[in-house]
Amino acid sequence: MTAPPPRQLPVTVRTFTQRLSPTPRGARLARHLAVNQLHDWGVPHGSEASGRVAVIVAELAANAVTHGRVPGRDFELRLALVVGSVRVEVSDTVSRVGEGPSIVVRHPRALDDGGRGLVLVDAVADRWEVLDREPPPGKTVRAEVDLPGWLSLVAAVSPRSRAVRN
Hints:
The protein is α+β, with helices and mostly antiparallel strands. About 35% of the residues lie in helices and about 20% in strands. The chain contains 5 helices and 5 strands; from the N terminus they run E-H-H-E-E-H-E-E-H-H. It has helices spanning about 25-40, 50-65, 115-125, 150-155, 160-165; strands spanning about 15-20, 75-80, 85-90, 125-130, 140-145. It has a 5-stranded antiparallel β-sheet, with helices on one face. Helix 1 runs antiparallel to helix 2 and helix 2 packs antiparallel against helix 3. The radius of gyration is 18 Å and the shape is globular. It starts with 13 loop residues before the first strand and ends with a helix.
């Protein structure tokens, strides 16, 4: 006699994608959309995870607008609620010319006007990386923020749990 296979919970991935204009207004909108989407997924406004994602989106969107802007081409924000974390991806249309397989975070001097965006992302994200954009041209910066108790979020927003409560 064999034992029945262990019951596996369904892995639900929630995703959100939005193309935005490469302007300061588009970068600001990206941050607002991100925290509101997280709130809809059960990560409340003002929580640590929401604040960390807001900082990451703000910095990556500002970089896409400032350094990755090509006239007539938008940048893209993608969020995903994946197993154990929130994944943030910001894609633009400027390739990683001369960067090699990864980008080195250089700490700016005290009086430098800029250069702190990726330092902040490095400090706030649990993991991050830079990838070639699919489809080319361009790059995608991906960062993840771990979510303790992520399984309860998935259960709270699943269609089955809504039907049980109604």
